[in-house]
């Protein structure tokens, strides 16, 4: 049966004193909120940045995009003709380990590396230039991209065999062709609005330390791009921010014994993913809807406490992007155990992509190990790293929400009142995230 690219090896983690770590993490976030509330009004939370002039790099980015496209098609070919084992075939390892686990994390920590490796912009520009096609005006909103990202998350979580090489190769090929065709016909701006992965990656880039400001390369603390973003940019980030948080959270929740109990499924008699497709899809979309409703409610409550008449849509658009660090923190924590194992399989696959005895990387007789899951010291280190990622994400989210509240409100009192319910939500979500991390799962 194809292996699933999800966190695993949770057994020994559950033997750790997780209650102590959970309590400490929640307390750290709560103290951050308290310090911000008690901070004198003359102190303003700032996210300083350093900028330098860098010449345009469009040509280089198009070149690397074309190279990335060539590599993608080589991986698709390997998916069709390579080994059937998902842990030996380079396509599943590239998509789920290289892209979804590693590149998403790098994008959130560093900045927009996706602009260099996306397999669409270069080929789209090349074909349109050769054909002499005109650019159509942008008339679509972000809904096509949001829908594409939901479809991607449904495939990730509910498809019976998302790591099966044949199945994955067909899905990747069809998705690339669909996005490529539309982008060629209507223009490259489609990728920023209608391509779900680009939409998500662009949002995550706003957490990174590197970005662009007024045409210059800028370096700052994590999240500075959100703190300095214009209102229109925050509006574009709002819904995808909630979707990213919801996908990551439900990804962890739907593997827990608690969730299986809700479905009346015995975890020791697990029917497999194929037996829970519709239940998983309903759970995913239901969780996304519930999360969006809760976020909207706590932001509405903040407006009422501050006696403000700001339209709810405007307020949600303004504050929802502060959830991005939470989404990234849980993404890192959730996939860390899997990445430690599957990255080793990735090295083997790169060294011998077709399993014909090649040794491109010179690994020799390389054995994949999971021994670090069998010793308390390394398990504790892994769990503490996961906990730190979640807590740091929540702390950063609280700081960003406070910075935006200060910017949007004329007085410190109104700023505190408008963000108070959201801060309480973030404290509660810390508890939820750490509980998911420590819960028994498949």
Word description of this protein:
The protein is an all-alpha fold. Helix content is 66%, strand content 3%. It is built from 17 helices and three strands. A three-stranded antiparallel sheet has the order 1-3-2, with no helix packed on it. Strand 2 and strand 3 form a beta hairpin. Helix 6 packs across helix 9 and helix 11 packs across helix 15. The N terminus is likely disordered.
Topology of helices and strands:
Blueprint: H1 18-38, E1 49-52, H2 58-81, H3 90-109, H4 114-117, H5 121-131, H6 143-158, H7 165-186, H8 190-194, H9 196-205, E2 210-213, E3 216-220, H10 224-227, H11 231-253, H12 257-262, H13 277-305, H14 312-319, H15 324-351, H16 376-408, H17 412-438
Antiparallel strand pairs: 1-3, 2-3
Helix pairs in contact: 1-16, 1-17, 2-3, 2-5, 2-7, 3-9, 3-15, 5-7, 6-9, 6-11, 6-13, 9-11, 11-13, 11-14, 11-15, 13-14, 13-17, 15-16, 16-17
